[in-house]
Design goal:
It contains 13 helices and six strands. The chain is an alpha+beta fold. It folds into two domains: 163 residues, no CATH class; 109 residues, no CATH class. The strands form two sheets. A four-stranded antiparallel β-sheet has the order 1-2-6-3, sandwiched between helices. It has a two-stranded antiparallel sheet with strand order 4-5. The radius of gyration is 20 Å and the shape is globular. The termini are far apart.
């Protein structure tokens, strides 16, 4: 006879996610909290001010949902068969926030139907302050690599995360083993052109190309501009360099829509975009939040980098 935990995992996987694990709603480890607070104090979050807010909630799921007992952690593999050197892989798909949220809402309804209880739920997909990688690690979904991404030994780090917090007590899964999965590998560190990932294992978002092209609204220094290469939106260098991502399968969910027309966009095309062009191509896409003005700023930098490289 299937347990409620087995039924939950089967339902989640049937809906399109690849990994499901269950952990408690207890606070994350003191080590993680200390590291995160130091990271903030050192200014490494750049201008992402929201990361400094709701700190206590980020570390403690029970503060996001009163009487919380369990957190169901999910991960969706988004690796595509083709990658773009200009747009991060996840942005070649539809907006993952709404895709994952819909499935977690369906999962919550399923759990209510299975238990016959009036349960409480809180759905989290990126925009809610929660230590998603730390919780996913505790739920057995994978380890946090030197590229600071959740990495599953069999599915790599092309993973989009979502959590369902509930007041239903559930049997938890074993946390991922506390061992050094990366060992002496420095592929991701070597692949980062700006030094955002260092051998000290500290991550400086202010140097990260994903941060610069997506979150940073101001001017970008000349030094960092030259290292952006052809990246118009995001950067996958540290992910693509990881050995765990070399032989993983591509996204199997046919419901997670892939937009091939975004693959070969050039900076020149983007610079000619009207607002209508932008809205049409990037509707229901993470790029939409960045806006046309900032995308053109990035495209102009990439266009100049291409000219300099050709000389």
């Amino acid at each position: 006879m299937q347990t409620i935990e087995d039924k939950i995992k089967q339902k989640a996987k049937n809906s399109g996610v690849d990994l499901v694990g269950i952990t408690t709603a207890e606070p994350v480890s003191a080590v993680y909290i200390k590291h995160f607070k130091k990271w903030l104090a050192d200014g490494c979050c750049g201008k992402m001010a929201w990361l400094t807010k709701n700190i206590d909630k980020r570390f403690n799921p029970a503060l996001l949902l009163p009487d919380a007992k369990s957190v169901i952690c999910t991960a969706l593999n988004y690796k595509s068969s083709k990658q773009s050197a200009k747009i991060a892989c996840y942005a070649l798909y539809q907006d993952y926030h709404s895709f994952i949220k819909k499935r977690l809402f369906e999962l919550a309804d399923f759990i209510k139907g299975q238990t016959g209880k009036e349960l409480k739920f809180k759905i989290c997909v990126d925009s809610v302050p929660i230590a998603e990688k730390s919780l996913a690690q505790r739920a057995g979904l994978g380890f946090i690599g030197k590229n600071h991404l959740l990495t599953n030994p069999h599915l790599g780090s092309f993973l989009l995360l979502g959590e369902l917090i509930t007041n239903l007590p559930l049997k938890t899964d074993k946390p991922s083993p506390k061992k050094d999965f990366c060992k002496n590998c420095t592929h991701c560190i070597d692949a980062c052109p700006t030094g955002a990932i260092s051998k000290s294992l500290f991550f400086d978002a202010r140097k990260c190309i994903s941060y610069l092209t997506i979150e940073h609204k101001g001017k970008i220094s000349r030094e960092l501009k030259s290292k952006m290469g052809s990246c118009v939106f995001g950067c996958d260098r540290c992910i693509l360099a990881c050995p765990y991502n070399k032989k993983i399968p591509v996204c199997h969910s046919s419901d997670f829509k892939f937009f091939a027309e975004r693959l070969n966009l050039t900076p020149e095309q983007i610079l000619k975009f009207s607002q209508k062009d932008f809205d049409t191509l990037f509707a229901d896409c993470p790029v939409n939040r960045t806006g046309l003005r900032q995308l053109k700023r990035n495209a102009l930098i990439c266009d100049k980098n291409a000219v300099l490289k050709s000389k």
